[in-house]
Each structure stands twice: as C-alpha cells, then as structure tokens.
Amino acid sequence: MAFVPAARHLARAKDLADARYFEPLSVDDLARAAGLSRAHFSEQFRRAFGESPHAYLLTRRLERAAALLQATDHSVAEICFSVGLRSVGSFTTSFTRTYGRSPTAYRAEAPPAADQALVPACVLRAYRRPQRRTFREDSAPEPQ
Predict the structure, then answer these.
(1) For the chain, which residues score pLDDT lower than 50?
(2) Domains along the chain?
(3) 46-54 long-range contacts, CB within 8 A, separation 24+
C-alpha cells in the first residue's frame, strides 16, 4: 500500500466542510473523513490550516450567511438554518464577533437584494418583443 501524506487526508476533511457546510457536520465527521482520531485530526488540522476544524466550519458558514444576507431577502432565521446553524442567538453572536455588526446591520449596509437582481438579456429581449397579433393586411376594410 502506498504512503499517502497526512495533508491529503486533511484536505479531504476540509473539502467536506467546504462542500457540505450546511449539513449538521461535527468535528467527528471531519476526522472520520480524514481517517484520523478526533484528537489527532484536530491537532493536525490546526497545524496545517492555522485554526481548529470547528472554527473553520463556523467561518465557512458565516461567509455563506454574509453572502446570503446581501444577495437575498430571506429572514435572518432562514439564513441561519440554511447554512447549518441551529440557534439564531448563537448565529447572531458569532456573526457579530466575526463581522463587527449584527446580521441585520450587515444587511442594512448593502443595497436591497431586489436592486441587485440581474435579469438575463435573453429574458429581457423576450419580454420586450411585441406580442403576436393576428391581423391580415389583405383583409377587407371594416364597414363604416
């Protein structure tokens, strides 16, 4: 069996966190993906990436929440649950600690999501096209 560097196993766990941050992942799940014990995984992950696996997963979730706050009109609670967090209070506290303002204040600084909605050019062209009308140029004039 060929030797596989530990960094590859850690990258597998990191990729799992990046791809499935919205699921109820735990450090145990990430350690299992890396094929390491929880304690050894946590130590190696921190050494390789500069933060704990839990902190990394929370950061990914908060990054996605920040993007959703700016790009959608979903409620703070909906966004909290959609990024895999279970408590709006904890979400608000973590978000405020990370971004320096509450999710509501963060959203207020961005233009409304409806102003950012881009409509594809093909849809605009289709919408602006004249509606088909059934008329005949060669029909007899209407009696007066």
Answers:
(1) 1
(2) 6-116 (1.10.10.60)
(3) 48/6, 48/7, 48/10, 49/10, 49/14, 52/27, 53/13, 53/17, 53/27, 54/27
